[in-house]
Amino acid sequence: MLRRRILTANEETLLSVAMTPFTPRHAQLNKSSTWSDWMNGVKVYVRPAEFGNHEAAVTAMRQRAVLEDKSPLSMYFFSGPDAAALLQRLVIRDVDAF
Fold it and tell me: Are 47 and 25 contacting, i.e. CB atoms less than 8 angstroms apart?
């Protein structure tokens, strides 16, 4: 089961959780210094609870390209002979490099 809560994190806290490639940049943009954690029983990922001006964020999403980090929300397991081929169609990075 996925649980969500809001926490205040300092650098020590951030170092004790699973990080995504976006975590350092999120930390710079996180104006409130509050984080949401998403627990799936295996790892804990954190993401900023908010970045600030929601209206400006929505406007930017509608007028520009958006890159959203979904890593903290779910963990997927792929298996089978065509798993790598499927993943390669879903992501830009070379899945053989994972």
Answer: no
Q: How far is 79 from 89, CA to CA, in rounded Å?
A: 15
Domain span at 88: 3-97
Spacing of C-alpha 85 from chain mean position: 23
DSSP H helices, the chain, are 11-15, 23-29, 54-63, 83-90
Structural domains of the chain, count: 1
Quote the pLDDT of residue 11: 47
End-to-end distance of the chain based on CA atoms, in angstroms?
26
- What's the pLDDT tens digit per position in 58-82? 787 788 877 766 665 666 778 899 9
